[in-house]
Amino acid sequence: MKETPIHQQWSSRLAFIFAAVGSAIGLGNIWKFPYIAGENGGGAFILVYLVCVFLISFPVMIAEVLIGRRTHKSPVNAMEKMALEAKQSPHWSLLGWMGVIAGFLILSYYSVIAGWTLSYVLKSLTNTFGELFATTATQDYAAAIETVFSNTIANPWMLLLFHSIFMFMTMLVIAQGVRSGLEKAVSSLVPLLFVLLIILIFYAFSMPGWNQAIDFMFNFRFEDLNAASVLEAMGHAFFTLSLGMGAIMVYGSYLPNKVSITHASFIVVSMDTIVSIAASLIIFPLVFSYGLEPGAGPGLVFVTLPIAFGQMSFGIIIGSIFFILLLFAAWTSAISLLEPAIAWLIENKNLKRYQASIFMGLLTWLTGLLTIFSFNIWSGFTPGDKTIFDWIDFLTSNIMLPIGGLFIAIFVGWLVSNKVTSEELNTSPNNIFYLLWKFLIRFLAPITIIIIFIYKLLDTLGLLKGAA
Ligand code: TRP
User: Fold this and answer.
1) Cys-Cys link to 289, which of 123, 207, 368, 413 (CB 3.0-4.6 A)?
2) pTM beyond 0.85
3) What is the best residue among 336, 338, 393 to mutate for testing ligand 1's pocket, by most ligand atoms within 8 Å of CB?
């Protein structure tokens, strides 16, 4: 059954873990998680999120890695091969196709936001926020920082410049290949990311707002929780672990046969969760120390934090470290968004890796223009009350990823035999953990994904007026 893989393999279990952790930890953990936790009242939200991560996302991650590792092929071909082995229609490859498309669409806007991060690294290094604090009247300071942000996104040329640099960085890594590109990049960036995170946590711990932040995050005020926040938690538990579009599957396909899928996935899920909590433990103490608002939404990182950076001691250093951390996190995620497409181009179109990287990189770069213009020259173009950027985000995060996750769960849970799954997970089909996983992947994961999916769809189409 097993042929020699045409792609390189990770050199060790650790390399896979770094790559998958690098994919998982991204803008989702550091930019998005703290603000949705903030908007949804903190503690109780975090509890619900943890339940979702371990009961829904973790089993789906095992399923994705399993498909990749079993076939050692890109998601499109992996799905086809696995389906044929299970005597199912080869058209399951469509699931791989949806992933390829979702990945490049997500990257097209992810790269633009990573570009903001890059521009904020430069702003921090050149002390933009500190200078504003020194030169602006106290009551106008916050508004001045806000203007920095609105000016950043209002200028298409600047956004284009930073988006281009970020896409170039991404292509550069991918073009070098699995071992000397991806593996080399993640093996230095991921440990570095943890070092930066630890430095920032120590700083946050020294702030007067630390206790208030702990209280905000770990005090379960269930009255703050509503149906919408539960669903937000579930949706995010998916996005943050890079599930539903084959990124983890393609990384699984480079995994040597002897490595335990369950162990490796557990480490990835835990690391990702720890980083989301840690990011909140960095952000909220700063927010509370300066009497700012935790529920500031997407502006939490690009407006609220700079307000704090501008006036605190070591603000240049702490601010720069923070945005560099965010940039590295985005970088190691970006490469995983393109890899399913790259692997397919290499397998089916006989392209060299560098050719595939240039092709996909340019395509993504071009598509990114839609997002760039959504913030400025096309900001008034909002069919259905959404900008084009909002639509791409909605289509990918709320439609394609849940459908991807759902069908992966159904496929592995119901169509692939126990013999194949237990063999790949290296356990007996009667093992209690195996049975638990099987239950979660057959029932809990599909059912909850369907509920979120329908709810979010109705919500967006405005059919839930007044609910939640
Ligand atoms: N998980 C990353 C984050 O939290 C983003 C990401 C990378 C992603 N690859 C993905 C999201 C694949 C969905 C699917 O920012």
Assistant:
1) 207
2) yes
3) 336
